[in-house]
Amino acid sequence: MVSVMSLWLPIILSAVIVFVASSIIHMVLKYHNSDFKRVPSQDAVMDALRPFNLPPGQYMLPHADTQAERTSAEFVEKTNKGPVALMTVLPNGMPGMTTPLIQWFVFCIVVSIFAAYIASRAVDPGGDYLAVFRFAGCTAFVGYALGEIPNSIWYKRPWSVTAKSVVDALIYGLLTGGTFGWLWP
Fold it and tell me: What is the pLDDT of residues 27-75, one digit of tens each?
């Protein structure tokens, strides 16, 4: 069995490689630019919402607090009349990138730690590259991909957006698996 602590280099390096790959995907390839649509009459919608001074958070329109309220004729009428919306309100101003990028890198490290743990339990020291690649890569893919799918199931995120994120996860999994296979003790 391989000690997870002995895998510190592939953990850190795979996180760095995934971080760089995700930067290339989002800043160079830009296929995620179509993930969000512009609201028709964007300025009018923003002007209409501004007086409510909504604090940052997640909102649903219409919203019911109880099952009884959700099944009431009034709520059903509001839902049928629309619009029905899920929205995230962010703080005003240009969003900063430093905190999300740090959080993303920490997440990449966490995924790599799980990949290290699973691979270290399955492959002995000096193990075959493909065995290490399979366990670490599959674990990383699961870590990056599967959490995306419920957003399409429950929150109606377009499946095309989720599919692009799953493709990203496949790339990240392959890179992680390759890094672990290369640096396996």
Answer: 999 999 999 999 999 999 999 999 999 999 999 999 999 999 999 999 9
What total of structural domains would you count in the chain?
2
The reported pTM is 0.92
Q: How far apart are CA 155 and CA 157, in angstroms?
A: 6
User: Could you give the dihedral angle defined by the CA atoms of residues 144, 148, 150 and 154, in that order, rounded to the nearest 10 degrees?
Assistant: 160
84 contacts: CB under 8 Å, gap ≥ 6: 61, 62
Domain that holds residue 119: 4-36+95-183
Mark whether 150 and 61 lie in a shared domain: no
State the burial class of residue 85 (Cβ atoms within 10 Å of its Cβ: 0-12, 13-18, 19+): exposed
